[in-house]
């Protein structure tokens, strides 16, 4: 039997446990303290175009600017990329909470297509950092 004598009321203890559980969920490895957004500008067959992959932190986290952030992009059938391996020198940091890569590409024909990428980064609090590796798909609509 759990003896709560000396720890206050059950509702106070329950509240403390709820707060601890919420903190654990925010800081646990694998917790989504970020969003990854993708967008592709207008694309015409045979012409250069650009897509963007953006990391946006949340819940008080920030982008670790010292981590070797990278985006490895693979073209698909009929779509080539200007640079398959984007690294720290290619990233655009916006404040402490956003990091984005511009991906240049060219599609050979009109229609739906996609680019697949692996995004490596780390998000941090003031005390802890959490490296992440995410698969990303960038949808393209080529005219």
What does this structure look like?
There is one protein chain. By secondary structure, the protein is mainly beta. It folds into 2 domains: 1-30; 32-142, Immunoglobulin-like, CATH 2.60.40.10. It contains 1 helix and 10 strands, in the order H-E-E-E-E-E-E-E-E-E-E. Strands 1, 2, 5, 7 and 8 form a 5-stranded antiparallel sheet that branches. A hairpin with a 7-residue loop joins strand 1 (34-40) and strand 2. The longest helix is centred in the N-terminal third of the chain and has 18 residues, at 10-27. 20% of the residues are buried.
Q: What's the topology here?
A:
Elements: H1 10-27, E1 34-40, E2 48-57, E3 62-63, E4 70-74, E5 79-81, E6 85-86, E7 92-94, E8 98-107, E9 111-124, E10 129-142
Antiparallel strand pairs: 1-2, 2-8, 3-9, 4-6, 4-9, 5-8, 7-8, 9-10
Examine the coordinates and then state which fold CATH places here, giving the name of the CATH topology of the largest domain: Immunoglobulin-like
Main pleated-sheet profile: 5 strands, antiparallel
Helix content: 10-25%
Shape descriptor: elongated
The helix-and-strand class reads: mainly beta
Mean pLDDT: 85
- CATH classification class of the largest domain: Mainly Beta
> What letter string, H or E per element, gives the SSE order?
HEEEEEEEEEE
The H-level CATH homologous superfamily of the largest domain, spelled out, is Immunoglobulins
CATH architecture of the largest domain: Sandwich
Total helices: the number is 1
